[in-house]
Amino acid sequence: MGANEELRRSTAPELEELELELLLEALVRRFGFDFRLHDRAPLKRKLFGFMQQRGLSTLSQLQDHVLHDPATAGGLLRTLHVPPAGLFDDAAEALMLREAAEHSLRGAALPRIWLADCAGAGQAWTLAIILAEMGLLSHAEIHATVASDEMLDEAASAWLPEADLERAQEGYQQSGGKGRLADYFNLQGGRAMLVPSLRSHITWAQYNLVTDASFNEFNLIACQRALPDFGPLLRQRVLQLFHDSLVPFGTLGLDRELDPAEPLAAAYQAIVPGQCWYKRIS
Fold first, then answer.
1. Of 52, 117, 196, 206, which sits most exposed with the smallest number of CB within 10 A?
2. What is the pTM of this model?
3. Contact by Cβ (8 Å): 248, 280
4. Among 61, 80, 99, where does a domain finish?
């Protein structure tokens, strides 16, 4: 155990909790990002992991660095938000996206999909390729929202090393893909960029799930990578936001199965038993 870890463990729990509250309040006031209703366990794991990387012993030290060092602030906010996804990095999720798209997009005049707190270009590009193969992308709109301007810039200018396409090919095939991923990319100088005909159907925007209101109606909403970090109150707030944004008979993809006791549970029916993808029925 290192000295920093020993010092952190020696901090009284009530003092550490006070430091945490002050840090979260500082993030709201200084940067406008509100993590106060996030589940404490994953939040602390991310914070303490970041502190260990930076050689910091207390949350108070972290707060001081965050307020006075833009690089530390940017790094911490990136750590607390959804980590970037790889192309077809979750074959099971991609397979369910195909199923969900079949249930909610086919037959819609102008299908709209919302990737809420999107995990970057890898997740959005995965969906665009799936919809293209299903013949659904030509008249569809993918709205991919991220929490910060920095993440927005990263997504808009993203590219993949060409070698990543080879590694993603297996996940692509496991999720129902029949062709070659390379056919969907322009390759130049070892870099791979999604072809413009697919990329043009993705609209990137900065959006805060904690504070922002519904901004459109969608046939499919997916938010599986951010929700695990949300505490009960914030989770209910976000589920209501999704309900207000989802058209009747639209599809909602979550991080876990709906609890029958949740206020909105009766409005949804599982697409596949045991999965966390739901069709809105009322």
1. 196
2. 0.91
3. yes
4. 80
